[in-house]
Each structure stands twice: as C-alpha cells, then as structure tokens.
C-alpha cells in the first residue's frame, strides 16, 4: 500500500512540475512576442507570421515578408517556429492575440475552423491577413492569393500540350485538406482550357484523386498506392500542391516511370526545379513568393495608414519548364550569387 502511495505521489509531483514548466515556457513565448523598447523609444510594429507548414514555399514567403517589414522599421516573427513544443495553428493564433501583436499573417489549408480566432483578433484591434487560403466569412482585412482561374488556365494549357493523338488519361492530385472551393475552380478551369487548347485528334478524360498531405509520409503512402496499386498509371499527372509534386517526382524515379508519365507540378521549390531541369517533371506552376510576402506587409501597412486595406491582393503565377527552369533554380539555390562572386 505504501509503495502505491509513493508511486502516486511521485507521479503527481512530476506532472505538477511538467505543467509548471509548460506555463513558464508559454509565458516566455508571450513575453518574446511583446514589443521591445530601445533607448526608451518603442520599436516599430510587431507582426506575427502563423503557419504550421515549414516547406520551402512558406520559408520563402516569410523571408520576403521579413525583409519588407524591416524596410519599414517593423519586425515579423514566425510564431512557434523552432520552439520545443509543437503548437497548432489555433495555439499560435491564441498566443499572438494574447501578446497583443500589431498584425497577423495567417495560413492554414482550411480556415473554416479559424473564424472565431480571427474575430477575437479583430476585437482586440489586431488586423489579420490570410494567405493562399481564405475565410471570406471572417473579419480578416485582406486576402493575398493567386487567381484560381489563372492557375487552372495555365495548367490546362500545359496539359493540352502534353496530349498525344487519341485518348489521354489525366489524373489530378488534390490536397485532401484544402477544402472544396479553390481546388474545384482550378479543376473546372483546367478542363475548359484543355478542351479549348487540345489538338483536334486528341481526346482526354480527367479524374481527381484526393491525397493526404498532412505529412510527407502520408502523401508518400497515397502516391505509392497510385504507382503500385495495380491500376494503370495515367498518361498525365497534375499535382495541385507542393508536397504531392515532390513525392510524385521521387516516385517516378523509384518506380522507374520517368518518361512514362508526364507530370505537371505545383510550385518551384529547389527539389521540383531540379526535377524539371532533368526532365523528370514536365513543368510546374510557379508562384511569386517574394510578391506574396511583400503584399502581406503592404496590406498591414495600408491598414495602419488608411484604416482600411484592399480586400484582395493578386499574386502572379507562371509555368516553369525545361526552357526557363535553370534561371529559377539559380535564384532559388543561390547559384546566381555564387557565380557572380567567382
């Protein structure tokens, strides 16, 4: 009996210490988000960057936004990035709002469950800018994104270029966690563009497949099933997110299917650009991440200057293929700077 009592006491003590440590840590995070004073003068505005996605795309967006903020004497902080604890997007929003930051840049694949926290930020006087995924029912001040119509047009035209005479099977990989709206518009626009641009002797069928991209492992498993599941591979495979594109480009090599499937990807990360350069991936939809970051800060600055901001900032997209991949790759990998130094 005494042994059981001691075990309970030890467990209770450890749990209490852990909770106390967690409280102290979160308090430190909140203090770290507070605006700093320098020589008695309050520094510029303090903006929060919130996303759980740490892919190349979002690191590039954060970098450009940070540079733009610094140019105006402001600071942008990626809330929770690099911390010991794994915060959810909701956790990060609550931390940023509680700390009284001056503005929030927010991305989550599906923002439908974030309305209450966006409203809480607005009630606290904190403007919120959503990026590449929107919640128009909330009080966010601006949405920075790409035109789903323009993206669908470019992808559909590229697919039509890849058609051979006769029947062509096309599979479109759609992010299972992205919601229906934008992806559906991209899909329907692709269909129309492909039908309009195809050669007279070409026909095609489009099929959408949902891929779980919550983690690279889950995406790899879903894509592995496509390559080894027994069903015939499509002639053309179109990805609508970065994770799927990178996983597909690797699967083509792993399963010896390079040249057998034409792949059209999404976003020009270094991994994807090298695949395009080598001919593993036919082309990829490029997004101007620098413009995304700049537009986010411009929206927040405009709000503070005018009391209102543009509802929508459109970011350019373009197709990257074998003809121009090297130029984009040099910019992404830093090779261009290295060449200039030599």
Going across the major beta sheet, what is the strand order?
Answer: 4-3-5-6-7-13
The H/E string reads: HEEEHEHEHEEHEHEHEHEHEHEEHH
Identify the CATH class of the largest domain: Alpha Beta
Low-confidence stretches: 6-10, 13-31, 34-42, 335-342
Mass-distribution shape? elongated
Overall mean pLDDT stands at 85
What is the distance, rounded to the nearest whole angstrom, between the alpha carbons of the first and last residues?
Answer: 76 Å
Integer count of domains: 2
Which superfamily, in CATH terms, is the homologous superfamily of the largest domain? Response regulator
* Helical stretch tally: 12
CATH architecture tag of the largest domain:
3-Layer(aba) Sandwich
- At CATH level 3, the topology of the largest domain is Rossmann fold
Q: What does this molecule look like?
A:
With 342 residues, this protein is α/β, with parallel strands linked by helices. It has two domains: 135 residues, Rossmann fold (3-Layer(aba) Sandwich); 158 residues, Response regulator (Rossmann fold, 3-Layer(aba) Sandwich). The protein is built from twelve helices and 14 strands. A six-stranded parallel β-sheet has the order 4-3-5-6-7-13, with helices on both faces. Helix 8 links the parallel strand 10 and strand 11. Helix 1 packs across helix 3. The longest helix has 32 residues.
Short key terms for the protein model shown above:
disordered C terminus; single chain; alpha/beta; 342 residues; elongated; six-stranded parallel β-sheet; 12 helices; Rossmann fold; 14 strands
Quick structural overview:
This protein has 342 residues and is an alpha/beta fold. It has 2 domains: 38-146 and 290-315, Rossmann fold, CATH 3.40.50; 148-287 and 320-337, Response regulator (Rossmann fold). The chain has 12 helices and 14 strands.
